[in-house]
Amino acid sequence: MSYNKRNTKKSSNGTIIFKVNEPGELLPFLLQQMDNRSRNSVKSILTRGQVKVDDHIETKHNYPLQRGQVVSVLKNKVAVKASTLIGMKILFEDNSIIVIEKDAGLLSIATETEKKNTALHQLMDYVKRSDPRNRVFVVHRLDKETSGVMMFAKSEKVKRKLQDNWRELVQERTYVALVEGELTKPEGTIKSWLKESKTHKMYSVQDRDGQLAITHFRKVQSNKQFSLVEVNLDTGRKNQIRVHLSDIGHPIVGDKKYGAKTNEIGRLGLHAKILSFKHPVTEQLMLFRSDVPKSFFAKSR
């Protein structure tokens, strides 16, 4: 099988891009396209996860290629990491945990309708590239439309330790919310018990027939239409911030589910700004910060 080498280009970050003109297998295709490299060198590039077919990393030598597909060879492992983690970036990693910064629009974990385009699935692929036995475990979640700092465990043992001792280990969880309306109180605390309806919507009750939720808030800035609010959590219940801010008459921008009438920034106005915790193994105090989106400030000036 011969392959046409004309459809080749190099991007600004050093990625080499090949267009597939006829069906074949991945390794023979790469060997012909990269005939300045030895067979072992090309096989190593494949094994290290430096080859993408269309939008996914592919390491199988006999992966079938179809006409019209695009094969990209990334420059190095750093490029692989940057190119394959879509909608997120790694802030910290060691043998026990991974801390990421998640974009709005990326699911934390799989749903019935979306299995692969999630933070968990991407991180699982990422850690398996160095050792197929590696795993990643969910410790806590951010809603799909919430951006910011999030942590995963790299073993079942670390996951259990973090979840079982969450209140003791986590020193600070600070969120920033862009809400509708001018917040008149400079600060306050919201306390209720949360329950979930049959339609999976959370709501507050005061009779303790639910999960206790405590939210502290502080106004950062506001105008007649919007307020920027800093939020700290004593508890981490599902949709807690969204419910509580709606309860006081200031739903989060873009949160139609909990009463918002506007979507001025094209996303949910909620961002996980700070996560500080004692490392589950070393007990070192760690703090991770994610910059608040500029649109939050612009709308609330």
What does this molecule look like?
There is one protein chain. The protein folds into three domains: 8-75, Structural Genomics Hypothetical 15.5 Kd Protein In mrcA-pckA Intergenic Region, Chain A, CATH 3.10.290.10; 82-153, 2-Layer Sandwich (Pseudouridine synthase); 172-300, 2-Layer Sandwich (Pseudouridine synthase), CATH 3.30.2350.10. It is built from eight helices and 18 strands. It has helices at residues 26-33, 39-47, 77-84, 119-128, 156-164, 166-169, 240-247, 294-300, and strands spanning 8-10, 16-19, 24-25, 51-53, 56-57, 64-65, 70-73, 88-93, 97-102, 137-138, 147-153, 170-180, 187-196, 202-205, 211-222, 226-233, 270-278, 285-289. The strands form three sheets. Strands 8, 9, 10, 11, 12, 13, 14, 15, 16, 17 and 18 form an eleven-stranded mixed β-sheet that branches. A five-stranded antiparallel β-sheet has the order 1-2-7-4-5, with no helix packed on it. Strand 1 (8-10) and strand 2 (16-19) form a beta hairpin. It is elongated.
